[in-house]
Specification:
It is a multi-pass membrane protein. The protein is 67% helix and 2% strand. With 341 residues, the chain is mainly alpha-helical.
């Protein structure tokens, strides 16, 4: 084995070990690692189910009959319908699987739009300051003060009248959730920008004649976005709850356009009092597990990124060294340092 191949292999391992989730997984211990692994497994199952929905779902989300005839309404679990059928005659298992795909699409669109808008506005506001900063702060503080679900309902009515087809419904739900999340990203990025623009290397770049755009995007932005993975994971779980809330209250997507867990729960409310438990149980469990998985990942990453909450790993007895610690996902303060024994 040549020295070049050894060096290449070492670089690949180093890059792999410093990926955000991999790095934090290696850093975690005990209960922290158990929470992170559990969250990653649940989230991974959710994502795979959403991606492979057309392959693993026994029926379509709006399918009411097969070669043997109509499915029938409120059939108990068993036979061709492992989780039973709904009051509308849909297969519960298929609706749960396809609902994961709808939730994932809405999460991706909502979070991407939120990050783009929130980061850009927070960067501009924090860097330039002045009256523009004061206006943005007042506006987003006012938006942030509104209950998130109420704000999402208002935006859903404004955008689509509360009901729409697949594309319109997904976009309406995503934009409604985006409106809720933008103030969170704005506040985080603005605070980081205000702190970073006072650093010496930013002042040096300004003295050397660098333009505001270059300083903002090359020096400030790349250092102000390190906490975004934490906010992303926590917001993803909140997006699922908001989407389910919109569907449950009747402001979601048409059932013939896409499967949505909140809508299915709404239609199952009257079934519970009649002893028909399966129409409400499985969509509810899907919501709980998806939210639980993403919350466990987000909270674990938050604990590992916060030096006040993070527990130190045990001191190596032989060398007297403490394993590396990190205050940001994928980054380290120092590879290792000595502590007195």
């Amino acid at each position: 084995m040549t020295a070049t191949s050894i060096t290449t292999g070492s670089r690949k391992r180093s890059l792999w070990n410093h990926l955000p989730v991999v790095h934090q997984l290696r850093q975690s211990v005990g209960l922290q690692r158990g929470m992170l692994v559990t969250g990653l497994v649940i989230t991974g199952i959710f994502v795979l189910t959403a991606i492979l929905a057309p392959l693993v779902s026994p029926f379509g989300y709006s399918q009411l009959r097969d070669a043997n005839g109509a499915f029938g309404a409120q059939k108990p679990p068993g036979g061709a319908h492992l989780l039973g059928t709904t009051v509308g005659g849909y297969d519960v298992l298929s609706r749960v699987i396809w609902g994961a795909q709808t939730a994932l699409i809405v999460i991706i669109i909502a979070v991407i739009l939120s990050i783009f808008a929130g980061v850009m506005l927070g960067l501009v506001s924090g860097y330039f300051g002045g009256w523009l900063d004061r206006v943005f702060v007042v506006v987003f503080d006012a938006v942030y003060a509104f209950p998130s679900l109420l704000l999402a309902i208002v935006m859903s009515i404004v955008i689509s009248g509360g009901r729409s087809n697949l594309v319109g419904g997904v976009l309406a739900a995503a934009i409604s959730i985006t409106t809720v999340f933008i103030p969170q990203y704005f506040r985080v990025i603005r605070a980081e920008t205000v702190r970073i623009k006072a650093e010496a290397y930013v002042e040096s770049a300004r003295v050397l004649g660098a333009s505001n755009a270059r300083i903002m995007f090359r020096h400030v932005l790349r250092n102000a976005t390190r906490t975004l993975p934490l906010i992303f994971t926590l917001n993803a779980s909140e997006a699922i709850l908001t989407l389910a809330g919109l569907g449950f209250l009747g402001f979601g997507i048409e059932p013939s356009a896409a499967a949505e867990w909140g809508y299915d729960l709404n239609k199952a409310v009257s079934d519970v009092s009649s002893g028909i438990w399966w129409t409400a149980l499985f969509p509810g469990v899907a919501i709980v597990l998806a939210v639980l998985g993403m919350t466990l990942v987000g909270e674990s990453l938050n604990d590992l990124a916060d030096p006040r909450l993070r527990g130190r790993r045990s001191v190596a007895k032989a060398s007297g060294l403490v394993s590396e610690t990190s205050v940001v996902p994928g980054g380290t303060l120092k590879d290792e340092f000595e502590v007195p024994l």
